[in-house]
Amino acid sequence: MSVIGAGISGVAAAGLLASAVARPLVSEFGSLKAEAAEQLQALGVPFEEGGHSERVFEAELCVVSPGIPRTAPVIREMEARGIPVVSEIELASWFCRAPIIGITGTDGKTTTATLIHSICREDGRSRGYRAFSVGNIGTPFSSEVAGMGQDDIAVLELSSYQLEGCSSFRPNIAVLTNITPDHMDRYGGDIHAYARAKFHIHASQQAGDTLIYNHDDPLLRAHFEGDRPWPFRVVRTGLKAEPLEGVSEYFVSVADGWIVIRTAGLTEQFMPVDEVMKPGFRGEHNLYNVLSSVAAARAAGVRDDAMRRSLSEFGGVEHRQEFVGSFCGVDWINDSKATNVNAMRQALQTVPAGMVLIAGGRDKGNEYSFIEALVKEKVACIVAIGESRGKIAEAFRGVVPVVEATSLQEAVELACRSAKSGGSVLFSPACSSFDMFANFEERGRRFKQLVQEMTS
Questions:
Q1: Which CATH number fits domain 2-83: 2.40.50.90, 3.40.50.720, 3.90.550.10, 1.10.10.10?
Q2: Measured between alpha carbons, how far is 270 from 248 in angstroms, rounded to an integer?
Q3: Model confidence at 87: pLDDT above 60
Q4: Domain spanning 92-313: which CATH class is it, in words?
């Protein structure tokens, strides 16, 4: 067995294989982090770094880390030699005894996965099962799967990268939040190639499984509607349109200030919208996340009282439109998890007009033209950072004033000087963090630290 990549997913996959009495070799093209090397040594798993040797091809199976594209030479060589290449998610699913709820999409998947996990955890407290939050949300599936029982629930956030290497992965419940352009650098600018990776989430679903999708998303609607009979049951969510009659088990929506569940011509008032949407957790995009979570929990058989209790207590997700505080007479909002333009758009719609926007990082093939009018309406000034600061300055030249900063600290200082008393500063990068930080979490924590240091 070969494991390509020694990040947290690769190390977790190696540990799972070792526990199954396999003999994995971990191969890292770059340098291993000290922590990864220590973990592998403790597991008794051999590893190599600084390139891939011929030893990696002496394998019956290759597990590839999500950050490594299928076009990488080592992966192409694996496929040329007929060695099966799977993702860490696919591998872990082979060992999973618990029902799986899988969540993917461009935006909203972390919030939706967090909501579903919170709901299932609350329900499990009185019913004797555990809910695990794993996958793209931060904890590798492979590191937890051995401890999952058949009465537990695995809640998986799934990226397109993780799903690329899935061929038999079969979630009992699959949720698709939306699909908008993202990772276009990886998918050659082709949103349909990106969507095909996402659609691996339902490729192996069968009768008895459930697929939940956002009916208001045009790409998803086009994919799931029509004459094609799906073997699994389909549940729709949405705010803007009714589903086609007779093609959905039920439809979760909003009517007259209530979250409602429509079935067979009947409308069940589930809970008031105002009990869920509140300061710190607001915006139409979050309402979509709530609808998906209600649909998934209902499909999983979660009790309604556990759903209502969890939803009413939910306060949002760190790094996603997170209110940091009021400093220097200005509200500071951490939206570091916004790694694409659509996520930035959602934040811009939520924050009051007149804000200072801090944006930038490593560009993923972003196209900014479709938010130009919104930026002109809502933003007083942009502070551009990271590798993409020049592209952002060019995109919004003549739309709003743009200043460039060479570091996040400088950006915070410039934003503080530019923001008007009573206004807001929104940190919504629309780019990945990898030019300056290890991940969006580190970037968000650094932003919050810098903001708080201004008053210390």
A1: 3.40.50.720
A2: 18
A3: yes
A4: alpha beta
